[in-house]
Design goal:
This protein has helices at residues 2-17, 30-55, 64-92, 99-108, 124-144, 151-179, 183-202, 217-222, 230-247, 273-283, 287-300, 302-309; strands at 258-260, 265-267. It has a single domain (23-309), classed as Ferritin, core subunit, four-helix bundle (Ferritin). It starts with a helix and ends in a 6-residue tail after the last helix. It contains 12 helices and 2 strands. Helix content is 66%, strand content 2%. It has a two-stranded antiparallel sheet. It is an all-alpha fold and 315 residues long. Helix 2 packs antiparallel against helix 3. The longest helix is centred in the N-terminal third of the chain and has 29 residues, at 64-92.
């Protein structure tokens, strides 16, 4: 039996290494399925939770044009989350689980979401930083996974990445307006950048498992769910955005930040990864408030799930 199972594993890895796409009804090793469920569920929930900081700015946006733009962005992010959770559900079905199990894991703290969405967004400058730099970081991560070995995830990412580009352009528009505005507006923008810089570095995760005690990075790369390390993604982000931030006359709150020509990489002050672990385990500045809002929404809409569950099978 072990020899037969090993043959199935070898055939599966040959398919992946040859660039074939795995589909939902294909045979797959248990740990491949588990890695996908963990990755896609976290991504989907992060899209939904990520809409909440910007949702706070819908009634407070400075103009009608900005209000409509941020409303559309919130709607897109929620849609991304729903799309990804549907992909995760297909993987969970053979295990007898569904979306309710995902939400239970979120509410119990077993399912984590990105560190950036635990943070406060007290000013319009924060809304700009989220749309420009947080979404910019997300585009770098998600573009890397477009070639993922799991076909349904890759197809979902293709649509998501296309929409995220518009989100980043929306953020850049806000940033440019503030950077070219009054001294007060520039200070507001600089303050927002100061608040978000460490969170942006943390966005990609630690360099190694030693910094937080665990890492799924190696397994995800082995199965070609991703093709770059956390640090490679962080370096790509720095290369793309540091010159742009400096070109606006803004100061990055890290006096050690520099590009090492010999190593051809950025040097920066490493974040406190114990703080990262504290945040993603539900102890960030807005963790409990945002999670409570999601719980209320889930409970208030229970009647919709019940109605759908009772609909005639022929409809």
């Amino acid at each position: 039996m072990e020899a037969v199972y090993q043959q199935k594993i070898d055939h599966f890895m040959d398919r992946i290494n040859n660039g074939e796409k795995i589909e939902a009804d294909d045979w797959m090793p248990d740990d491949y399925r588990e890695a996908l469920i963990r990755l896609i569920s976290m991504h989907g929930i992060s899209e939904i939770m990520g809409a909440l900081p910007e949702k706070e700015w819908v009634p407070k946006a400075p103009t009608l044009h900005r209000k409509l733009a941020i409303m559309a962005k919130v709607q897109d992010e929620m849609g991304h989350g729903q799309l990804l959770l549907r992909v995760a559900e297909d993987l969970m079905a053979p295990l007898g689980k569904n979306r309710d199990d995902i939400m239970k894991d979120l509410f119990s703290g077993r399912l984590k979401f990105h560190n950036v969405f635990h943070m406060e967004a007290p000013t319009w400058g924060d809304a700009g930083i989220i749309a420009w730099l947080v979404d910019g970081a997300a585009i770098i991560s998600q573009t890397m996974m477009l070639g993922t070995s799991y076909g349904p995830y890759g197809r979902a990412l293709k649509r998501i990445c296309a929409e995220e580009v518009f989100h980043a352009q929306h953020g850049e528009s806000i940033i440019m307006a503030l950077a070219e505005g009054t001294e007060e507006q520039r200070e507001l923008l600089q303050d927002a950048l100061n608040r978000w810089w460490t969170s942006l570095l943390m966005f990609f995760g630690p360099k190694s498992k030693n910094e937080t005690g665990h890492s799924n990075q190696d397994k995800n790369m082995q199965y070609k769910l991703r093709t770059k390390t956390n640090e490679q993604l962080r370096q790509e982000f720095l290369t793309k955005y540091v010159p742009r931030v400096w070109s606006l006359g803004l100061t990055i709150p890290d006096p050690t930040l520099r590009f090492d020509e010999e190593k051809s990489e950025w040097e920066y002050a490493d974040p406190d990864w114990s703080e990262f672990k504290k945040i993603v385990t539900g102890n960030g500045p807005k963790s409990k408030e945002r999670l409570a809002l999601r719980v209320r929404s889930y409970e208030m809409n229970s009647w919709v799930r019940e109605a759908l569950g009772k609909r005639p099978q022929h409809i």
